[in-house]
Amino acid sequence: MAAPAIELIGIDKRFGPVHANRNIHLRVEGGTIHGIVGENGAGKSTLMSILYGFYQADAGEIRVNGRPVRIRDSQDAIRLGIGMVHQHFMLVEPFTVLENVMLGVEGGALLARGRARARAELQRLEADYELRVDPDAVVGDLPVGLQQRVEILKALYRGAEILILDEPTGVLTPEEADHLFRILARLRDEGKTVILITHKLREILAITDRVSVMRQGEIVATRETAATGAEELAELMVGRRVLLRVEKGPARPGPVRLGVRDLRVVDAQGVERLRGVSLDVRAGEIVGIAGVSGNGQSELLEAIAGIRAPAAGRIEIAGSAAQGLDPARMRALRLAHVPEDRHRMGLVTRFEARENAVLGYHNDPRYGRGALIDRAAVLAECRRQMESFDVRPPDPFLKVANFSGGNQQKIVLAREIGRDPEVLIVGQPTRGVDVGAIEQIHRRLIALRDAGKAILLVSVELDEIRSLADRILVMFDGRIMGEVPPDTDEARIGLMMAGVAEGAA
Amino acid sequence: MFLDILLVLDSTLRISAPLILACLAGLFAERSGVFDIGLEGKMLAAAFAAAATAAVTGSAWLGLVAALGASVFLAMVHGFACITQRGNQIVSGVAINFIAAGATALLGQAWFGQGGRTPSLSGAAKFQDIRLPGAESLAQLPVAGPIWAELISGHKLLVYLAFLAAPASWWVLHRTRFGMRLRAVGENPAAVDTAGISVAWLRYRALIVCGLLCGLSGAYLSTAQGAGFIPNMSAGKGFIALAALIFAKWRPIQALLACLLFGFLDAVAIRLQGFDWFGLGELPSQAVQALPYLLTVILLAGFIGRAVAPRAGGVPYVKER
After folding, report:
1. Shortest Cα distance from A391 to chain B (angstroms)?
2. What are the C-alpha distances in Å from A205 to residues A60, A227, A234, A235?
3. What are the extents of the domains in chain B?
4. CATH 3.40.50.1100 fits A6-238, yes or no
5. What does B64-113 look like in DSSP terms, one character per residue?
6. Rounded Cα–Cα distance for residues B299 and A110 (Å)
7. Is A92 within 8 Å of B191 when comparing Cβ atoms?
């Protein structure tokens, strides 16, 4: 048998007190697609960064094609035929595709000659692997799916035989993801080795030959993909049994609590981001907004929350007109908002948990009179929220930056839900949240629905929308493409998300 | 009238030259992602080094070498603070400005005892005007003659160099490997790093170019335009160059044009001193002198649209996670 393409022996890495990788042993056979799954923070990305020379391991050995090697920087990795497609693309946006591909391997101090050679080579790669991109397109203007192809082309152009992809589908539509998988399968058939890092079990099962599961910095198991299933992998990832499906009864919709009529939003560049959106959310139901990010979902949430003034249209919360009100007045109408980006809008991460527990509600007379804050009341409120949402560690004096993503999100949810709102609008409730916490957050949202609240849910995770929502609205290019029930098949929703098919609304 | 215009344009070139050099210096630094508000300080230090060396050795060329050395040294201090130590680029730049302003005056006084000035330069200690061929014989031609003789010919070497530096910078940025990498590192240093290129070394090289150009600019002030060093003789030119850089949206040819515009405003302001406004009397000279700065503010505030700085500008590069 041939030596494995990659063999890691006893890799160990610490960042200060954090033990990111513990004694990792991993064999990746050549010409296969090897998946690595694990929760956020399980150490997947750190391990791959060590392989790509971004970090140095504290201990352990790396063998490429059976030969022990030292990888001190990315240049070493590239020389060994290792290429990486990062989760956050490493592209220079104002550059053309060609320039991005050439960067670092220009082939001489002057660009002209290398440019011609790169163009020819690029055409060959495009033909060989069906990676079609216009070499003269400016990368910043390309949709993310194509940007990702540029990243793959970059790696192949450098002669990569081993391709590492870090969470490649996070930004893709289901259709784009399928195309990516076809490309990966093609690469494998041409004899390349692919390492796919993801936390999405569905992808692992769809495309890999073998899968390794990481938990808390360790590889806890390696399986033939054909011989395992989603339930087993999820259990291995979390270390206990998890419910992948959300348990919920049928919705009992009441009167309309949130009404949006012909809402239009124009951004600072004068581009219309919402082009006449109308929707109703009733008490006791969850309405999900599906769509590829950047199609107006953020603007919709921000307009309803009062952060962004709409150019036209009406918003009604529990029967009273609310368009153009500021977020504080919106809150007074008992609207709660869990923003999409908790770091940017939901939390002040340098503040302690107790301060974050009352952010936006700090003028409430419960927490103090006039200019002064009643610190004991704030502390009590924070303790109550932490207990109710099982925030760990339950330390009100810890800075929010030091909580894990899941616990940060729980802090935001506890603050917003804790006020017993009539309408809750939620953006990406489980982005960067580990599987255990996802389960908890989903259960809280269902409980809130069953308590008769109206919930508008925006998420780029189609699975999440499908399992939580009672009705799904699909957004594309600032419009609602149509409404579908949650059991609609994924391909159809995918087409609507891509703006191809209209829904039967 | 024609001669008046020619004279104003002629002094526009003289005034613009150091701005162009400083502006291009800033361009190299900022396109690589390092903000440099220390242009002013580097010019001043270079001006002093040039004049002091020329005064002692009697050679403008040795002065120029000293100017380049002083300016590159300060650029490397900035680099060490901002690239290696990941310090705040604005603070480092301000510090360099203060150090340069203080140290030049102090050393000038200590060495020459003339209130911070260096001795007046003459002869080979100063760059001389270059007479282009045919300046005398063609001067008699109508229109073209005076333009050649008065406007184009008769400048210092460094003026011609400044005007060549702009297209040369464009060529370096867009036609060479170094230039492409430099533009890339100012936009997304992580992309450069993962391509296996050293971000730090690339930015240091950008700052060396910045230092060299500032050195030329400073040397011009004290050994070509002027005849010796005067404390604070850069008089805000480094900041005007920064304004021109933003106005030009960090592009070399536009930088040349922006500096010419600012130089022209300055030249007009000088010309208008003592001008009788249609019997209404003279405008106070302070108001005239303020004109270029006023226009700078107006232009920057209203007429350039959105200036998109290199995306990674001002941010020290740290590997994430």
Report:
1. 24
2. 30, 10, 12, 15
3. 2-126+135-303
4. no
5. HHHHHHHHHHHHHHHHIIIIIS---HHHHHHHHHHHHHHHHHHHHHHHH-
6. 37
7. yes
Provide the residue-wise pLDDT of chain A in tens; the chain has 505 residues: 578 999 999 999 988 777 889 999 999 999 999 999 887 678 888 899 899 988 889 999 999 999 999 998 888 999 999 999 988 889 999 999 999 999 989 988 999 888 999 999 999 988 888 788 899 999 988 888 889 999 999 999 999 999 999 888 877 777 788 889 999 999 999 999 999 998 778 888 889 999 999 988 899 999 999 999 888 888 888 777 666 677 888 889 999 999 999 999 988 777 888 999 999 999 999 999 998 777 889 899 999 999 999 999 999 998 888 888 888 888 889 999 999 888 888 899 889 999 999 988 888 888 888 888 899 999 999 999 999 988 888 889 988 888 877 888 999 999 998 888 999 999 999 887 777 788 889 999 999 999 999 999 999 888 889 989 999 999 988 999 999 999 888 888 888 887 876 654 4
Cα distances (Å, whole numbers) of residue A313 to A75, A260, A274? 54, 8, 10
Instruction: Give yes or no on whether A6-238 and A256-497 have one common fold.
Output: yes
Determine which helix (DSSP H) or strand (DSSP E) holds A327, and give its type and residue range: helix A327-332
**What ranges do the domains of chain A cover?**
6-238, 256-497
- The CATH homologous superfamily of the domain defined by A256-497: P-loop containing nucleotide triphosphate hydrolases (3.40.50.300)
Q: Which CATH class is domain B2-126+135-303?
A: mainly alpha
Residues on A contacting B at a C-beta cutoff of 8 Å: 45-46, 49, 52, 54-55, 73-75, 77-78, 84, 86, 88, 90-95, 99-100, 102-106, 108-112, 114, 154
Considering only CB atoms, which chain B residues are within 8 Å of A105? 195
